[in-house]
Fold this protein.
Amino acid sequence: MFEMIIFQNVSKYYGGTPALKNISLRIEPGKVNILLGPNGSGKTTLMKLILGIIKPDAGKISVYGYDPVQDPIPIRRITGYVPEDDTLYHSLRVKEYLEFVARTYGLKPGVAERNIERVIDAFMLRDKIHEFTGSLSHGYRRRVLLAAAFIHDPQIYLLDEPFIGVDPRIARALKTVLKNKAKNGYLVLLSTHVLEIAEALADNIILLYKGRIISTGSLREVLEKARTEGLEEAFLSLTMSRLQVEEIVKALMG
Ligand code: ADP
């Protein structure tokens, strides 16, 4: 019962504008959960609420029994979070940054060293460990953020648009890892606006649009619901990329 994320009638406003409106939701471990929605639909806001980075204006959130407003620290300890924005300290070198992250999670030195080595190899960062994170390319900075989320073997993986700008080899490996983590009972929640990613990975899709949950379930179910509710704009912005690709292929093939 405790080992899940529960939203009860949660709303969040920026100024007078709602970013999330009356969200009620259960997110369970054991499956790959995907927050799918066009840009601006509230995905990042929802993730930040889970970690207590921002506070709801109404409603209650429980994360494995903890309230992120009162008790964000234990939640952050059990969570690996990959933010969408670059939150690195640019004046730290890659290895220093990972050591800093390991320390904040309270890992013992031996364990920290071992885990840091593991993520450096996994995310192919070996030849960058002495470089300042601020001097890295966008793709490498994403790798460092991903590596940081895997250092402490968290129970919850919160990944905000994790595949953007990531090397295809790493993207592929990450998909396999996330599926396996879910199978092994971890909670995986990732956000995307890319239909193909949801299609390839999701056991459960949460379709967000303009701060509301349109529906949850399989890809087919959530898209059908969007269409039957007349949310043509949401439907099109999610499906357009695929249709366009098909059009381009057709045009090129003659
Ligand atoms: P998504 O992650 O789906 O792209 P966001 O959660 O980032 O969506 O944003 C949801 C809405 O809230 C958008 O309309 C966005 O402009 C607004 N918003 C997000 N963060 C802020 C902020 N710090 N100040 C004002 N408006 C914000």
Notes: Residues 232-253 form the longest helix (22 residues). The two ends are 56 Å apart (CA to CA). The mean pLDDT is 90.
